[in-house]
Amino acid sequence: MKTSFSIEQIDRIIEMAWEDRTPFDVITFQFGISEQEVIEIMRTEMKLSSFKMWRKRVSGRSTKHLKKRDFVKGSFKSTRQKNITHNKISKR
């Protein structure tokens, strides 16, 4: 790893990597490290069993890679989310 991070930054990288919906591209944008460097951080900072569980879970997961996601880039609205009607109170 070429860059040294503070304890708080390492904790944030691990937290973001652990979250299923945070793509590696966001971690790269925020911290300037590659997916492989994230994996190295996870490997060195976590217990072996936790790392293996995480690695098994995220391998091939489409939500961890922006190019594999099935929604339009920049759109974070779920298809199941109801439309908001300009905050108007519905008639009763």
UniProtKB/TrEMBL annotation:
Database matches in Pfam families: DUF2805
NCBIfam families, A to Z: TIGR03643 family protein
Protein name (Swiss-Prot/TrEMBL): TIGR03643 family protein
